[in-house]
């Protein structure tokens, strides 16, 4: 069955920015089906009931589990026959360093994004083939832009030449970063870490977004990178100075971005650079965190 209205999926939406994104979308797109993705069935269903919106439905999806993603794709295919908008929002921070923790962060923020987006691409392409809108919104972070700017020149040169980069090369770079975390191993590049792997995971997911934007432009699929800004959520022990709702508004702007702007990075509707200096005000906080 293919439904007439738009089908929008937000991953990691049982709380935080993802939850607020679903709430805003349920109001701004009353005709659309909004799928609230969550890895935990109870937390997902609770979030849906809290919203009490009749166009919001729970979809079980764990970004680290291919079986869960395949089942989610099958459910969307069976129930709706297509997907118009995929908001890849699920993400985690790392409270401590160490290889295992950093690997977990990469497994959700970088490899998880790739698993989810790759698996839903056929349904997105189906929407385009039917002449409908199809887009991928990747919730990245300004922290990824700061981390990008911290990297040594030879690595930045590779990351910046998006036209020559493949997803496989980015996966190899991700592995190289993980190698750099192991003190007894020699990595190819002299990686600089920021927030225990969180920064590099967001740098790489942003570059991944730019690479697939280039690859999918011919199919008419828009890919947008977004930063919600520093919002008070569980990810940062509610230390952010913006609300999750402001973050969600910043994310949902991605629905308005045109194909000509595909691969762009936006916050609050404004185009951002893919790499930027750490603001002075953040430097002290970062130094404290790195102690
Ligand atoms: N808050 C900020 O200041 C800020 C700034 C820049 C970017 N971001 C990005 O915004 C996104 C949302 O973060 P948030 O601040 O809203 O954090 P949050 O409140 O901690 O929410 C994170 C969401 O991701 C889900 N999640 C974690 N691991 C998952 C997995 N393996 N599969 C599926 N879902 C998973 C969580 O589910 P559970 O409840 O089951 O753990 C939760 O629903 C993240 O990508 C984050 O990096 C946040």
UniProtKB/TrEMBL annotation:
InterPro entries: NAD(P)-bd_dom_sf (IPR036291), SDR_fam (IPR002347). The keyword Repeat does not apply. GO terms for cellular component: membrane. Keywords: NADP, Oxidoreductase. The keyword NADP applies. It holds the Pfam family adh_short. SUPFAM superfamilies: NAD(P)-binding Rossmann-fold domains (SSF51735). It comes from the Eukaryota. One of its GO terms (molecular function) is oxidoreductase activity. Belongs to the short-chain dehydrogenases/reductases (SDR) family. This is Carbonyl reductase. It comes from Acrasis kona.
């Amino acid at each position: 069955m293919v439904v007439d209205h738009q089908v929008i999926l937000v991953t990691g939406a049982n709380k935080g920015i993802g939850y607020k994104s679903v709430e805003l979308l349920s109001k701004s797109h009353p005709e659309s089906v909004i799928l609230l993705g969550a890895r935990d069935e109870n937390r997902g269903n609770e979030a849906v009931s809290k919203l009490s919106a009749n166009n919001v439905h729970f979809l079980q999806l764990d970004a680290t589990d291919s079986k869960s993603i395949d089942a989610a794709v099958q459910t969307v295919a069976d129930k709706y026959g297509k997907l118009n908008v995929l908001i890849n929002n699920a993400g985690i921070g790392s409270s401590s360093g160490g290889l295992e923790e950093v690997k977990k962060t990469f497994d959700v923020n970088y490899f998880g994004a790739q698993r989810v987006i790759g698996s839903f691409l056929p349904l997105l392409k189906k929407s385009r083939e039917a002449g409908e809108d199809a887009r991928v919104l990747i919730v990245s972070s300004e922290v990824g832009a700061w981390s990008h700017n911290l990297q040594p020149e030879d690595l930045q040169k590779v990351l910046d030449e998006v036209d020559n980069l493949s997803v496989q090369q980015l996966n190899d770079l991700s592995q190289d970063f993980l190698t750099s975390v192991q003190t007894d191993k020699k990595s190819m590049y002299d990686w600089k870490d920021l927030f225990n792997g969180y920064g590099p995971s967001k740098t790489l997911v942003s570059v991944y977004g730019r690479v697939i934007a280039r690859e999918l432009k011919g199919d008419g699929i828009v890919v947008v990178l977004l930063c919600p800004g520093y919002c008070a959520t569980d990810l940062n022990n509610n230390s952010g100075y913006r609300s999750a709702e402001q973050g969600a508004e910043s994310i949902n702007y991605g629905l308005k971005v045109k194909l000509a702007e595909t691969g762009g990075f936006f916050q609050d509707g404004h185009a951002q650079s893919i790499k930027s200096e750490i603001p002075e005000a953040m430097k002290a906080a970062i130094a404290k965190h790195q102690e």
